Each structure stands twice: as structure tokens, then as C-alpha cells.
Amino acid sequence: MNKELSDWNKYWGHAWKPVPDVERIDAADYTSPEVFEREKDRIFRKAWLMVARQSEVAEPGDFIKIEAPTLDTEVVIVRGKDGVIRSFYNACPHRGVALVRQCEGRTGLFTCPYHAWSFSTDGKLKGLPGAEDFPHVDKSTTGLTPIHTGVWNDYIFINFAETPKQTLAEYMGEFGEYFDDMPFGEYTRAVEIIQDLPTNWKNFNDAFNEGYHVQVLHPKSLPMVPTRINPLNHMYDPIYLAPHSSATIQSNTDWVPTGKVMLFVYASTGVSFIHVDGPEEQAAKPRLFTTARGINRIGLPNYSTSTMNFFPLSQFQILADRYMWLRYWPLSPDKTRFIVRMYFGAPPRSHLEEFAEAFQLASTRDVFTEDVSMTRLQQQGMKSGGVKEVVLGENEHMIRFTTQMIRDYMNAED
Ligand code: FES
Ligand SMILES: [Fe+2]
Prior knowledge:
The protein is of the alpha+beta class. It folds into two domains: 3-43 and 176-410, Naphthalene 1,2-dioxygenase Alpha Subunit, Chain A, domain 1; 49-163, Rieske [2Fe-2S] iron-sulphur domain (Rieske Iron-sulfur Protein, 3-layer Sandwich). It is built from ten helices and 19 strands. A seven-stranded antiparallel β-sheet has the order 2-11-10-5-4-3-6. A seven-stranded antiparallel β-sheet has the order 12-18-17-16-15-14-13. Helix 7 (260-268) crosses helix 9. It is globular. FE2/S2 (inorganic) cluster binds next to loops.
């Protein structure tokens, strides 16, 4: 065993303190239509939601159309001539048509396909054919309906409340300050997978917030994670900065790949959990996440991954040289749109690196397939009526924390 790791108390001492006091959750919280409606109103219409990256609307006039499927809503996000990013409901104020049909583009004017009312990139009504028939419409006060929009780091957030209780800066709070040097914007290549799955959204949050299952569920797809000193893969160094959270996972330096392909990928290239490039190669790439202050602050020599939860629907899995952005949009009590976007750094420079990247992508797919299968079986069991409540161990502290945040939102005064 790596000697540095034998003093595990050094790292363990930072683990889960305090453990949030959430030992059980009603199974009905995962299955009830009433709970789901309340979650929509109390959480998804009130919290700031991470929905896109600034680089997706990099230049004035750039727009994207996204879905907020939990609220049956399409949103147009556009960078105005003044450089400001704004969001609008995709709904024409004349007779309601969802006027933007492209998923992305660049324009100076949005024109409705029904009667050609047109709107500038700041949402104002610019053109109204036959304006004389609309003497009761004041062009200066008519336009697309705005949605509150803010930017943190490279990420765009929206808030559907008429008057959000907090600004985005307040919502991100200390968590946002602590992680504001993360170089997300430097990672520009991504692959995205979208699936609608028959399970409750919270099962995704729960699945990716404990390491307890890794040894059992992922022995083939994640052999490099459980270690001898931490076989149940407890997550180190939880950072609870309400309503967001983060924790750290180590990799097993005792693990030596044996299969030919694994050897090829892990031993022959710099695309692995242990970065082997020299300073020159690194200079040409995006900054490693391990250079950011919030990543591996406890100095684990075998650092593997950080989990970051942006309440309520986004999670990042951060590796040293890439990251995954997971979103779980609730569609109904037992249906969720699961979106995984994996961002890579600099493009491969050789066939070897290209193969390594494809291999890691396929491995990630395998891990998610295993996780997703459990979330489906979980929902099946919860719906059966055979379980009235589920129970959480102290090692499932991240789930406990987010559950407490959900309860706080559900029970808030207004
Ligand atoms: S519905 Fe848009 S112009 Fe008539
Ligand atoms: Fe998993």
C-alpha cells in the first residue's frame, strides 16, 4: 500500500461532520403526485436552476432554446447587443405561439411565424404588422416575458419566480465564492446523452451522492475507486454550504490494470486518473481542476473525483482533466429526464489519445447504465407499497444533506 495513504486518519478526520439528522425518508416522497406538484411549486419554481453555459451564447445575437420540462416550458436564452444574457418564455404575447423553433442560432430579431410580430434580442416588441388595428397595445410595454437570469462562473441560471427571494449571488453564497475559480469555461468539447427514465428525480441525486454502492454495483466498471483503507468508498471532506454541497473521492493506487485494453489506455497515455503530462503539455490544455482552491483541499495524494451538487437539479463529477454535468429534470413522480454532458479538455493529439478518450466515454456509459438500472428498480420497489420509508446510513450523508434542503424548501413559509 502507498505509505502516504496509511495515515488515513489524516483524511478521515475531515469526513462527514456533522452528519445531517435525516435517518429515514417516506417512500411516498418518491411516488406521490401531491408531493411532486408541491416540489414543482416549492422547489422548481423558486430555486435558481443551472441550465446552460455562457459559451453557448458567446456573441451578441447568439441564442439557444432550452426546455424546462418540469414546468412544461421552453425558454429562449439570448445575448443582447449590449452583451447582457437574458431569458424569455418562448411565447408570443399576441396569441401565445412558441415562436422560436430553432434550437440555436444568431439573430437580431425574433419573428413569430403566425402573424409576424417581431422582437429584438432584449425582448422588446419591434414590429407589429397592421399596428393600426391594435390601438390598445402599447409597443413600449409589450414584449416577450422575461425570466430572471444570472451568471455564475461560466454557467447561466434562471429563476421562474416572479420575484426571487434571493439574487443568484446570494443563492450561490459561500459555495459560489469558494468554487469561483473553477475553469469550466476552458473545457469546450462535450458529448451529451439524454434519456427519459421511469424513476423519481431524487433517485438520481441519491445514486450519485454516495460511494457505498461502488464496490457492489461497479466492480468491473470502476475497479479503480474502492481502496483497502476505504473499501466502502466513503466520501471525504463534505462541504455543506446550503443549499449546495460537495465531497471528494479517492482512487485506488493499489489497483493495477491487467486487461490488455485497460493497460493500453491507462498505462500508455496521459488520459487517465493520474495525469502524467509535463508542464509543456499542460500549458496547451485547459487548467486542471486540481489547480482550483475547492478541489482536493485536503490534499489526498490519490485524488480521483469531486462531486458538486448545485441544488436542486445539477451535479458535477469533476476529474482532474474533465468533468461531467448531470441534470435530472422531474417529469412526473416516476419519470425523469436525465441529461449527462461530459466535457473534455484539449482534443486528442494522436490515435492513442483518441482511443483512450473513446474508451473512457464507453466506461462512463457502463457506470451510468449500472446506476440507472438501480434507480429503476428502486422506483419499482417504492411503488409496490412494500416499503413505507427508506433508511439512510451515516455514510449516506450527502443524500441526508440534500434531503434536508428539499424539506427546507418544501416547508418554507411562502
Ligand atoms: S401569435 Fe405571434 S404574431 Fe400572432
Ligand atoms: Fe454508481
